[in-house]
């Protein structure tokens, strides 16, 4: 289940791409399939072990281009162990809401992104997240849980203050918000509740089969109650100069 839209965030074979806070690796695997040189970065060693195993399985199954590479790196998002200007593109999906000092992590993303490079950030949308917090304290107070609720304006303002240019946004996973509201209402760890189980089966059916009815429903629901908001950014090609768009052409911000 991808949150980043790779039509809006195209990957060119040979791109060096960081998946910062990769978790179980869903975006890292897609980046690998698209021919990138992928670094899957996370603090959780157990998650990274699973990602590394899947990378090897994908290579063995011939699912990735011959030239593509993938590796895992463990570390702290506030101190990325990479040189300046290392990556053509960065994905940071559902991670910044977990980091108390988010501005330091954002500054690190800017530092390791190449001039002209692009960044895709996803965080929980304000309204669905606010409802979850209201329904369940356990949802956001568990160790390693969410420490803040972003508005899109706040997320964009923080990254713009560092010098990044906003390239657009969209919402994703509108069908998933009601599931989390159910979970928060019946207990976030109560996976056996009949209503939670039934809705989970619906989500699995949607992910596996992608029927027209759920695709249409999600298209309608995403702008209203999409569980995630996705914002795309570009690092200017040079400080104080116009940025570079995805095609490599200079792009001047509107005034």
From TrEMBL:
The keyword Transferase applies. Keywords: Methyltransferase, Transferase. InterPro entries: Erg6_SMT_methyltransf, Methyltransf_11, SAM-dependent_MTases_sf. It comes from the Bacteria. Transmembrane segments: none annotated. One of its GO terms (biological process) is methylation. This is Methyltransferase type 11. GO terms for molecular function: S-adenosylmethionine-dependent methyltransferase activity. Residues 18-120 form the Methyltransferase type domain. It holds the Pfam family Methyltransf_11. It comes from Thermomonospora curvata (strain ATCC 19995 / DSM 43183 / JCM 3096 / KCTC 9072 / NBRC 15933 / NCIMB 10081 / Henssen B9).
